[in-house]
Design brief:
Distance between the termini of chain B: 39 Å
CATH class of the largest domain in chain B: Alpha Beta
CATH superfamily of the largest domain in chain B: Type I PLP-dependent aspartate aminotransferase-like (Major domain)
Structural class of chain A: alpha/beta
Strand content of chain B: 5-15%
Helix content of chain A: 40-55%
Strand order of the largest sheet of chain B: 2-8-7-6-5-3-4
Largest sheet of chain B: 7 strands, mixed
CATH topology of the largest domain in chain A: Aspartate Aminotransferase, domain 2
Largest interface: A-B, 79 and 75 residues
Oligomer: heterodimer
Strand content of chain A: 5-15%
Number of domains of chain A: 2
Largest sheet of chain A: 7 strands, mixed
CATH topology of the largest domain in chain B: Aspartate Aminotransferase, domain 2
Strand order of the largest sheet of chain A: 2-8-7-6-5-3-4
Number of strands of chain A: 12
Number of domains of chain B: 2
CATH architecture of the largest domain in chain A: 3-Layer(aba) Sandwich
Shape of chain B: globular
Distance between the termini of chain A: 34 Å
Number of helices of chain B: 13
Radius of gyration of chain B: 22 Å
CATH architecture of the largest domain in chain B: 3-Layer(aba) Sandwich
Structural class of chain B: alpha/beta
CATH superfamily of the largest domain in chain A: Type I PLP-dependent aspartate aminotransferase-like (Major domain)
Chain lengths: 387, 400
């Protein structure tokens, strides 16, 4: 059975070139990047090269503004907690959105319990924040805006330039959770004036267990660390550097940087084909969050009268991997907060399935899904107790 | 013999070939996220993580559900100290630790001090050991946690943890140990050591970097509380959020399995090599001192002070042997070792210290070569050292 993986927003396979780049650092050049001997210095060079590759992909002028972490969740935590605690004296108000990934949402809730004041901005039917609503929510006590760019469930891209401008106009720095966006769409922290940006490797072809936080130089001094215990990453994140993973992340960034436009177009064509043919072959389907401003690899389709879970499990039986939402919240029975925030009625969101494509996705993969989907939906609808 | 010789296995180790081989499927085809409950890729990843959890648990005599994966021992130490302190602060705000802990512990303690906790840093004796009686005396009604490392990363001295554990548990207090240097190297059973929490690192035991674990004892009727460092998704039963590093975790599991099989023999072999190393040095050089406990120490740790020699200069000049002065985590700052200072060495001998860490593939030839290299290099440096000349004239056998 040819298996088809269309769950890239959960995790992606490692790019073979990235693995190849990492392998020597497991057993041949295994030094600790903090050691002063030859082995250590070689590891250090590899880490710093990777730092440049990451910086380049996101348009950071200085590689030292990149801090390596253990992944996207840690990067988001470091950004929000590190900035919030470091700037608590200036104010305790933080603005975020209702369509965040759990990494930001749960962190914001934890801060709320520690006395911070949080505003959760509404989003429109496409998952976007209204710049005017943002402007009105900013107070003198506001210290940070944190928002997701490239929503994990529907792919929505925020009007970032406008939102950053609005926040900056009132002196509020911006953290962007770009875990799903980096490596998939162009993003330039310098051009956009982004202050903090979280990214992670394993969504676009880098390894699991590594991510990075971009910290604009001018706010760096105010950040507090979350993990203490060593001088690594210029005291911003303690712990022995995971050299092979960092090297692989750097390589993935370099490759995706070169391929960004082509790969984006390729995936967009495949995604659009999946969408349009599903629409023409299956009655009563709708696409959630469909707009021109979304990730090229993501579509969230709701099939009326069908439970998303049922569809997902039946597809799995045929070797096709998709998901009902973010895998981090795919705990049973928890309705999607993102879709709820977008005002999607419960019965529509319950029938939704997320298809997310990536570097390994082929025409054949899409063909295979389209071959089985219409009859499967029809069969499930016949069995369905739903009206 | 291939040069340079790696004599720095306390800092980090190469990944065992068997470990890398076990990781490979998860770096290629089996790339699923264990949180993906809806498809085969996710399930395969979950199974792999479960297996690794069993392998780690088996090595330390724990239950699989007592193992929580982290990004490494620094994070484990942070999670243990801050997580417990923040969760139990209503019962008291006092923690007992000691002066030669790894930076991950000391810096976490400093952070907790800023949050209003009181920390007692117990002294160590000349051999680097903590007195269990001192632990007993340091405990107050406010004490919620005692954290004492198992073996020191710089000098290899093994703390009398079982004895300390008895004292701590008699008072019903939580007991944590940073066992980064001992897991997979010497006997390290959580029950024997009476531990409630233990930090584990993969890359010190021939596993990959970027992964570690925290052992948290399963208590009845109530589970131990621990405030997480990160939020977002509630992975690892709410203790540690973030997509699991499946290849890394598989690597840690395999490293534990290999260690469980080989640690006894490996320990004996390395102890013999260590003794030969030290004897060779002592034969060739006078005014040279072994730091740390002479026998109650890690099989692979050798920490020597060469009076009249600048350790840093010796390392830099010895390109064919990779070793370190103190822990790598402090070595780039060029601060003298706080561990040796806490043991009462005077500054001159602290600056004259070097650590050699033997490893799984260290050969007798490599030990021989290293000894000869060190002896001749030290002799040459001393020939030009006025400090050494002065010392020999005074006949001062052990300054400080």
């Amino acid at each position: 059975m040819r298996r088809v993986y269309l769950d890239y927003n959960a995790t992606a396979p490692l790019l073979p070139e990235a693995l190849e780049a990492a392998v020597p650092y497991y057993a041949s050049v295994w030094g600790n990047a903090s050691s002063i001997h030859h082995q250590g210095r070689e590891a250090r060079v590899a880490v710093e090269d990777a730092r440049e590759q990451v910086a380049q992909l996101i348009g950071a002028d200085n590689p030292f503004d990149i801090v390596f972490t253990s992944g996207g969740t840690e990067a988001v935590n470091l950004a929000i907690r590190g900035y919030a605690y470091g700037n608590r004296a200036r104010g305790q108000h933080i603005i975020t959105t209702r369509a965040e990934h759990p990494a930001a949402l749960d962190t914001c809730r934890a801060l709320q319990q520690c006395g911070f004041d949080l505003t959760y901005l509404p989003v429109d039917g496409l998952g976007r924040v209204d710049p005017e609503v943002l402007a009105k929510s900013i107070r003198s006590q506001t210290i940070l805006l944190t928002l997701i760019h490239g929503n994990h469930e529907v792919g929505t891209l925020q009007p970032l330039a406008t939102l950053v401008e609005v926040a900056h106009a009132q002196g509020v720095p911006v953290h962007v959770d770009a875990v799903q966006a980096v490596g998939r769409v162009p993003i330039d922290v310098a051009a956009l004036g982004i202050d903090l940006l979280s990214l992670c490797g394993h969504k676009f072809g880098g390894p699991k267990g590594v991510g990075a936080l971009y910290i604009r130089r001018s706010i760096g001094a105010t950040m507090q660390a979350v993990v203490h215990g060593g001088h690594q990453e210029r005291e911003r994140r303690a712990g022995t550097e995971d050299v092979p993973s960092i090297v692989a992340l750097g390589k993935a960034c370099a490759l995706m940087g070169q391929r960004l436009a082509d790969e984006g177009n390729r995936l967009e064509v495949l995604r659009d084909r999946l969408e349009s043919e599903a629409f023409s072959r299956i009655p009563e389907v709708r696409s959630l969050g469909k707009s021109d401003d979304r990730l090229p690899n993501t579509t969230n389709i709701s099939f009326a009268g069908v439970k998303g879970e049922a569809l997902v499990f039946n597809l799995d039986l045929l070797g096709i991997a998709v998901s009902t939402g973010a895998s981090c919240s795919s705990r049973q029975g928890v309705p999607s907060q993102v879709l709820e925030a977008m005002g999607v009625p419960r019965q529509v969101s319950e029938g939704s399935v997320r298809f997310s494509l990536g570097w390994g996705t082929t025409d054949d993969n899409i063909e295979r899904v389209l071959n089985v989907l219409p009859s499967m939906v029809e069969r499930l609808r016949m069995l369905s107790p739903l009206p | 013999m291939k040069l340079p010789i790696y004599m720095d296995h306390q800092t980090t180790t190469p990944v065992d070939r068997d470990v890398l081989e076990a990781m490979m499927p998860y770096l290629t085809d089996q790339f699923g996220d264990p949180s993906s409950r809806s498809h085969a890729w996710g399930w395969a990843a979950e199974e792999a993580v479960d297996r690794a959890r069993e392998q780690v648990a088996s090595l330390i005599g724990a239950l699989p559900e007592e193992i929580f994966f982290t990004s490494g021992a620094t994070e484990s130490d942070n999670l243990a100290l801050k997580g417990m302190a923040r969760a139990y602060q209503e019962q008291g705000r006092h923690i007992v630790s000691q002066q030669t802990e790894h930076r991950a512990i000391l810096d976490s303690c400093r952070r907790l001090e800023q949050e209003g906790f009181a920390i007692t840093y117990l002294p160590v004796d000349r051999d680097g050991l903590v007195d269990p009686e001192a632990v007993r005396q340091a405990i107050t009604p406010q004490t919620i946690l005692v954290s004492i490392m198992h073996a020191n990363n710089e000098v290899g001295s093994i703390q009398p943890l079982a004895e300390i554990g008895k004292v701590v548990k008699a008072r019903g207090i939580l007991f944590h140990s940073d066992a980064v240097q001992t897991v997979g190297k010497i006997a390290c059973q959580v029950d024997d050591l009476q531990l409630d929490l233990m930090s584990i690192s993969a890359h010190k035991m021939y596993g990959p970097k970027g992964v570690g674990a925290l052992y948290v004892r399963k208590t009845r009727p109530r589970r131990l509380k621990c405030t997480p460092l990160f939020d977002g998704g509630g992975h690892e039963r709410g203790l540690r959020s973030g997509t699991l590093n499946v290849p890394g975790i598989v690597g840690l599991g395999k490293a534990c399995e290999v260690c469980e099989r080989v640690w006894r023999d490996e320990g004996e072999r390395l102890t013999r090599l260590r003794e030969r190393f030290v004897a060779g040095i002592m034969q060739g050089l006078n005014y040279t001192y072994l730091n740390g406990h002479p026998t109650q120490r890690l099989p692979n740790n050798i920490n020597l002070s060469f009076a009249g020699v600048d350790g840093e200069a010796l390392i830099m000049g010895m390109t064919e042997v990779a070793c370190s002065s103190g822990s790598a985590c402090t070595s780039t700052t060029l601060e003298p070792s706080y561990v040796l200072k806490a043991m009462g060495l005077d500054d001159a001998l602290v600056h004259a210290s070097i650590r050699f860490g033997l490893g799984r593939w260290t050969t007798e030839d490599e030990v021989e070569y290293t000894v000869q290299t060190v002896v001749s290099r030290v002799q040459r440096i001393r020939e030009m050292s006025p400090q050494y000349e002065m010392m020999t004239r005074e006949g001062n056998s052990r300054p400080g």
